[in-house]
Amino acid sequence: MAAALLKLLPPEVGDQGTQRCRLGPATFSSVGARLGSPLRITVPGGCCLCSAWPRNDLADGYLQLDLKCKTPGFSASKLEGLTLSTSHVKLLACQRLRKVTVKVVLKNLTVKKSTPQATLQEIVKELLRNVYVSLHYVVTAVPIPGNPVVCVEILAIDPLTEEAGLIAPKTNISIKEVVSLEWYRHLSKDTAKISVAGMDDLGSSLKEMIVLPFHFPKTFKKLGLSIPRGVLLVGPPGVGKTLLVKAVAREVGAYVLCISGPAIYGSRPGEGEENLRRIFEQGRELSCEGPTILFIDEIDSLCPKRGSSNNIPENRIVAQLLTLMDGIGSENEMVIMAATNRPDALDPALRRHGRFDREVVIGTPTLKQRRSILQLITSNMPISTDVDLINLAEMTTGYVGADLTALCREAAMQAVLHSSLDSVHVLINMADFHEAFKKIQPSSFRSSVGLTDFKPVTWEQIGGLDDVKLKLKQSIEWPLKFPQAFVRMGLSQPKGILLYGPAGCAKTTLVKAVATSCHCSFLCVSGADLFSPYVGDSEKILSQVFRQARAHTPAIVFLDEIDSILGSRSACKTGHGVPEKVLSVLLNELDGVGLKVTERRGNETQLEGECQEQNEKERQLEFQEVLNKGVMIVAATNRPDVLDNALLRPGRLDKLIYIPPPDQKGRLSILKICTEKIPIDSDVSLEYLAVQTKLFSGADIENLCKEAALLALQENGLEATNVKHEHFVKSLKTVKPSLTLTNLDYYEKLFNSQEVSSYIRRIW
Amino acid sequence: MSESPAILVLHQALQKSFQAIHQQQGVWQQALTDCKPLLSSLSNLAEQMQACQKVTFAHTPLRDFPDLEEQLKYKQRCAAEGLLEELGGKVADLQKVRDAVSGYVGTVFQLYEQHADVLGFEASVQRTAPHPSLADMLEWLHDIERYYRHEYLESKLLLLQIRYENLPDMQTLPRSWERILEHDSRSMVPDTLLKVSFLGTL
């Protein structure tokens, strides 16, 4: 008898709103109830309070419930076809309540406004009379025509009891809150927190803005402050603008009303404006009840510049939005938030105080932000101990939040693919992340101009030029890798480096090696990318390249054959050609007054201020973050004389590195590298060849080796297995050096430096 | 049929309360029917008020009478207030009935609570051919009390919704009242009283 099964049936029509539950006599006695005594029935998904009554036909094994008083979120649909046991039914002791505090939910806002407090009190008292209640239960009101009350939530009872409390006629009922049904539904929705990482300060300031006026309206009124009501979030796609708004709204319990462009525009003229007005009206109504956020995503599509678009309907919508934003009375708390990634496309009238008071720039995440984002994403992923998030954050320059999420997802996919067994214990290790890293590219790079795919080159693959390599490492790699030393010595990062020297002497290859050796974004710009038939387009592209590079710092921008891209203002008389304009853009980008506001990144924490509590690792990260803000230019040319003087001054291309033709030792190492894949006979003396190839550039030497190999094929037929010394000697006769003495002299005269002449002397 | 003293006590109490309810039902019905003419006059008044609002007195021969419009409106308002006051009185009657019934029901339940342990569950659900069980009768009492409370609340809410600003709604008052009177459950109380008429013969 301990757990007899009870089949749940739908309640009888006559029992609706009576709080009765019908039991069979056997259940009645096993529970020990009397007529009308309170019972708590627990079903999966909630509980309800009922008064016990016998079934009219006195049949056992059935249970009928009237859900007048139940836990919030418990609906009748969950009861269908359920079978319970008697252990789910519990008899409660009953206690008459002295006082209850309730929250009343009304049908809608208009009813809320029109119903006076006294009437409401009377209605609620009438509704709750002789009802068993418990703390935090919801009493559903009977559907009487003209009854404004939908349900009543019990917030507090006195005396506080776990058992059932009966509301007697003498019970004092106090109404603490009155809300509309819509708001109540919003509040009782699933309130799982959305977490965002790396934007704590932004989030808290937004939260403050939404919550403060709502909690302290009197203070604001007294101070005569108009409440800031508009926030414009600016940032590249994928940094989490929308997510931030959602997270903040969820945290403060604000109602988010979304406006999207396509939903606003209608087919009829004037429909768009009407829709806008309706949504604002809705927001205004909702804001009477609690903090409300009106969120306009992709506002640039809704509010383009009025002057430039000769599109009258759009202009009207912009005008309507402007007037609506002005028209919000300060007595309500609606906050308007908008997000865009093209702030320049917005109508300027929108971006003034009183409309969008605050503009929050969310840039591409910096190193620290990336680390915290990765920490957040991986916090509920099974990660093996070898995963170094800091290292990962260093690798992922230019990745935004969305990219990092994609990266982690891809890594997880890799881990799943690797583990052949369908096991629950899949661990994601660093190798998976590396694999994913190859596949996931930062999204902002997808439309980039200068993004290049190149074969990685190591320093060892370049023969000779040891001191040039050292210099390059000093000026590019060191600041990236050892920022503390640079700060200690009071050094700043060089802005730009010019590599010059005769053609074919591995300038481009050196840059490739630089890009391979340090993990940083690498943008390569050539004349073909820049020049276009449209006026002003070249300049725009170049500045876009720099903008992208700044978003992905640390970054290297490589301008190959810079002499062809830029002209010299002094040499050219007119000074109005495209090259001159491009030059002026470049000069500005290198050493301009400052950055655009929209390109701000990270939070401006002081380097000294916060260092005390941080540990060594944190501090190192901070150093790197501060130092790696710059974009480095590497330019290569073989005609440095035509470059503009302004470009060559310190602060712009402040380091000029001469890439000399290889000397004898260098030639030997180049020969060694070039003949690595060519099967050479033992009689070949590379030393002899190195002596013989005076004035040969690296490219010439490579050509020489190829010629010799071809010659061997020619002479010995296709079955040739090795290249003999005579082949080299023969091809030496045909292959002529591309460098000339006058050529080298010219470089010597150019900067008249000790270096160059010493190189020339060494070659001879 | 041997009956325990507890059952007898309860039966007596039930008999008393049902008798009282019988009387109260008469009062209740009376009050409801009394409201009907009042409401129809109110709706007529509303119609007049609306007509008065529509017409522009300056365009009619009545323009020679100064302040006619204001005076007319004042009179109408006074009449309406008087009617509302009377209606308020009727609603108060309804409330009295409701409270009285609640009182009777409460007493019976208290009595049941006192005797419940002696009585036992079996006895309270026992039915015989002429007698319904104690549980049934208590349930009926509950239903009756609930009926009065709902009806009272509904009529009260209807009267609370009367606004001078909303004259068209005011004109439909008699129809709304009819709806209350012709509720499905309106025959509930007389039916129940018929069912328990055996008590008089005990």
TrEMBL record, chain A:
GO biological process: autophagosome maturation; mitotic spindle disassembly; retrograde protein transport, ER to cytosol; ribosome biogenesis
Pfam families named in the record: AAA (PF00004), AAA_lid_3 (PF17862)
EC number: 3.6.4.10
UniProt keyword list: Acetylation, ATP-binding, Cytoplasm, Cytoskeleton, Hydrolase, Nucleotide-binding, Nucleus, Repeat, Ribosome biogenesis
Function per UniProt: ATP-dependent chaperone part of the 55LCC heterohexameric ATPase complex which is chromatin-associated and promotes replisome proteostasis to maintain replication fork progression and genome stability. Required for replication fork progression, sister chromatid cohesion, and chromosome stability. The ATPase activity is specifically enhanced by replication fork DNA and is coupled to cysteine protease-dependent cleavage of replisome substrates in response to replication fork damage.
Compartments in which it is found: Cytoplasm, Cytoskeleton, Spindle; Nucleus
Family, per entry: Belongs to the AAA ATPase family. AFG2 subfamily.
Location (main, coarse): cytoplasm
Gene Ontology terms, MF aspect: ATP binding; ATP hydrolysis activity; polyubiquitin modification-dependent protein binding
Protein name according to UniProt: ATPase family gene 2 protein homolog B
Source organism of this protein record: Pelusios castaneus (West African mud turtle)
Sequence ranges assigned to domain AAA+ ATPase in this UniProt record: 227-366, 493-663
UniProt cross-references to InterPro entries, sorted A to Z: AAA+_ATPase, AAA_ATPase_domain, AAA_lid_3, ATPase_AAA_core, ATPase_AAA_CS, P-loop_NTPase
Automatic annotation (TrEMBL), chain B:
Source superkingdom: Eukaryota
Gene Ontology cellular-component terms listed: cytoplasm; nucleus
Protein name: Chromosome 1 open reading frame 109
Organism: Pelusios castaneus
